[in-house]
């Protein structure tokens, strides 16, 4: 962390968000390393098996993510755990999160061409950082800003750089409908397609008087398929039908599918 801070030229909202993500990643990786090393000593007979170690053995046997690991990642709240992934799928996801943070930190926390927002421990923190940058540039208070989204026509591999204003994100899925690239709007989902992926999405902060209300559906964005406590923000998406159609269909964007 000291080496990364030394490479940073200026402290921007994006840099602060990146540092917070790195600290969270360090916390979860350190705890996993400590718990597994302790368990190894316990199985070797060097330590007595405690209740925590016994619970960890059960979780590993059942391919279940230990509750403490989820808590450090911010995936546990008042209503319980917000994760539906198995331990193996969750660990693969954690490796991808670590890879993105590694690449981000190697570039002195300069934003990559597009952020895998689903791989952030606190995605709302990144969205807030985007609004903060716009608010500072326009000399406006953060309270007057709200989120504006536009779905692009290209995939992550086709993005060359971040826009001058706002940010590109990817890794979102739609539930209850799908995105029609040809007509640039929401449409009915295809048979047997539960969570179709979304193209790269452009996010920027706008003032209340710049908010578009006609021909859009205020689509809720959740971090997992467990709705309610995992709500992050509302993403206005274009629609050629009344917004009530998608409200009744419970259409939403998800960051993490169950598998």
Describe this structure in words.
- The protein has 7 helices and 12 strands.
- With 259 residues, it is α+β, with helices and mostly antiparallel strands.
- The strands form 4 sheets. The chain has a 4-stranded mixed β-sheet. It has a 4-stranded mixed β-sheet with strand order 6-12-10-11.
- The longest helix is centred in the N-terminal third of the chain and has 32 residues.
- It is globular.
- The mean pLDDT is 92.
List keywords for this structure.
single chain; 259 residues; alpha+beta; Hypothetical upf0131 protein ytfp; 2 domains; 4-stranded mixed beta sheet; 7 helices
Q: Give unreliable regions as ranges.
A: none
Helix content: 25-40%
* CATH architectural grouping of the largest domain: Roll
Give the averaged pLDDT, no decimals: 92
What is the count of distinct domains? 2
Précis, in short:
The chain is α+β, with helices and mostly antiparallel strands. Helices cover 37% and strands 20% of the residues. The chain contains 7 helices and 12 strands.
């Amino acid at each position: 962390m000291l080496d990364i801070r030394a490479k940073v030229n200026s402290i921007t909202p994006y840099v602060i968000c990146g540092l917070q993500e790195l600290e969270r990643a360090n916390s979860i990786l350190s705890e996993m390393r400590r718990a597994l090393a302790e368990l190894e000593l316990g199985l070797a007979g060097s330590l007595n098996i405690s209740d925590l170690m016994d619970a960890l053995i059960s979780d590993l046997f059942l391919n279940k993510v230990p509750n403490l690991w989820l808590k450090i990642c911010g995936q546990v709240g008042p209503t319980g755990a917000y994760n539906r992934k198995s331990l193996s799928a969750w660990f693969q996801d954690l490796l991808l999160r670590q890879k993105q943070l590694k690449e981000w930190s190697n570039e002195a926390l300069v934003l990559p061409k597009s952020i895998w927002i689903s791989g952030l421990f606190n995605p709302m923190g990144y969205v807030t950082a985007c609004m903060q940058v716009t608010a500072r540039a326009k000399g406006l208070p953060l309270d007057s800003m709200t989120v504006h989204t536009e779905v692009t026509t290209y995939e992550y591999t086709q993005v060359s750089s971040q826009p001058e204003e706002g940010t590109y994100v990817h890794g979102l899925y739609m539930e209850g409908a799908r995105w029609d690239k040809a007509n640039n709007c929401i449409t009915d989902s295809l048979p047997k397609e539960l969570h179709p992926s979304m193209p790269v999405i452009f996010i920027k902060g706008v003032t209340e008087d710049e908010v578009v209300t006609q021909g859009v559906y205020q689509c809720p964005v959740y971090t997992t398929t467990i709705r309610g406590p995992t709500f992050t923000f509302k993403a206005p998406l274009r629609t050629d039908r009344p917004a009530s159609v998608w409200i009744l269909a419970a259409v939403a964007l998800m960051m993490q599918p169950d598998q």
